[in-house]
Design goal:
The chain is mainly beta and 152 residues long. The protein has a single domain (6-147), classed as P-loop containing nucleotide triphosphate hydrolases (Rossmann fold, 3-Layer(aba) Sandwich). Helices cover 14% and strands 45% of the residues. It contains 2 helices and 12 strands; from the N terminus they run ββββαββββββββα.
Length: 152
């Protein structure tokens, strides 16, 4: 998963990556929602917000590695809003910079009933990844996973 901007370094020695993605925070867990234009990143973020998540960023996110953690934040140039197709930009309170816990990739549907674990890497750190699930239960399943995890 890459996006415009690429991997750069800040003056403080952090590694930075700008991605075409949205992100929410739930119970101090950052969820990066990746996908192509029109895949439903903002829609999933809005659904998760309706269940209690807070918006970190819509449309573009900055990832930064600090020691052994990856943080998600909103670029300063973006408004404190979420884009809703057919309505426009809805103003919203924004969550602060948050540690990445989960990646949701909307580009490819999950086909397995009980699939093997999927992962992706940012800055040489590995993160659990969920593929898109086409069903109304997907936002609920994401939040339940963040609260309770998976059975081993």
């Amino acid at each position: 998963m890459t996006g415009p901007g690429g991997d750069t370094s800040s003056e403080a020695g952090e590694h930075l990556l700008t991605l075409h993605a949205s992100a929410v925070r739930f119970a101090n867990h950052g969820v990066l929602i990746a996908g192509s234009s029109g895949d439903g990143k903002s829609t999933l973020a809005l659904n998760l917000m309706g269940l209690g998540a807070e918006l970190i960023a819509d449309d573009y996110c900055i990832l930064s590695r600090v020691e052994d953690e990856v943080w998600i934040q909103k670029p300063d140039t973006l408004p404190s809003a979420i884009e809703v197709r057919g309505i426009g930009l809805l103003h919203t309170a924004m969550a602060p910079k948050t540690i990445l816990s989960l990646v949701v990739d909307l580009t490819e549907p999950e086909t397995g009933r009980i699939p093997p674990p999927h992962h992706c890497d940012f800055f040489d750190l590995r993160f659990r990844k969920f593929k898109r699930i086409d069903g109304p239960h997907f936002p609920y399943a994401i939040l339940h996973y963040l609260k309770h995890g998976l059975m081993a």
